[in-house]
Amino acid sequence: MGDELRVEQQGALATVTINRPAVHNAITLEVWRELADVFQQLATRPEVRVVILRGAGTQAFSAGADVAEFPTHRYSRAAARTYHQTMQAALEAIETLDRPVLALIFGFALGAACALACACDLRLAAENARIGVPAARLGLTLGLRDTQRLVSLVGIGRAADLLLTGRVLSAAEALAVGLVDRVYPVATAEAEARALATEIAAQAPVALRQAKRALRLLLRNPSLSGVDETEASIEWAETQDFAEGIRAFLERRRPVFQGR
Fold this sequence. Notes:
Blueprint: E1 5-10, E2 13-18, H1 29-42, E3 50-55, E4 60-62, H2 70-73, H3 77-96, E5 101-105, E6 108-110, H4 112-118, E7 122-126, E8 130-132, H5 144-154, H6 156-165, E9 168-170, H7 171-177, E10 182-184, H8 189-201, H9 205-220, H10 229-233, H11 240-251
Helix pairs in contact: 1-3, 5-6
């Protein structure tokens, strides 16, 4: 892995940082590849219970895909196909990670970076966040899966507003429409995000895995076609985490979950 994507781990929390601050953390094709690899690797680390995804510094989560690459990596249909598949592999790795992923958004999160944030489970914005999809100004738009995620968060009307106008929302506006879940002062946003991640990490991993699977299933298959609803709803039954949760409650102590 190069220096443009950093991974740090402290206890149960891993932080993945897009590290291209000189270009507002714009995402290259190689960084998309590395994001897929990193999240696939994190899936093999049971000690990691929550991941924070962010951009370096406080000026940008990411300005989006690196436009400087577009003439070579996105202009032809063949190149665009490869780029799209590479980007989607990264977003799929994030969305399907069986641990919560929190996007910590300082500054700009535009175009593909907005799509990246939408693939995370929660979006935590600093007050200087600016989020939108001004892609039509360049002659392109979000992919179908990206649009599906956006619609699931803000509804089809507001998604249409964002995609058709290219409007960029302030943090307060993004919170009001459901595009972000929390807004913090810039000075405390990182500490607040880490505190929330620590709180989530204390929950039962088995329950969090089931919750993530349920949310993704409802996004992709809202009618639950072909799903055994009962069995899918009681995956926590007979797990060690469930037994520990009951014991801890009855013994009036904090549970110590093992993720099994």
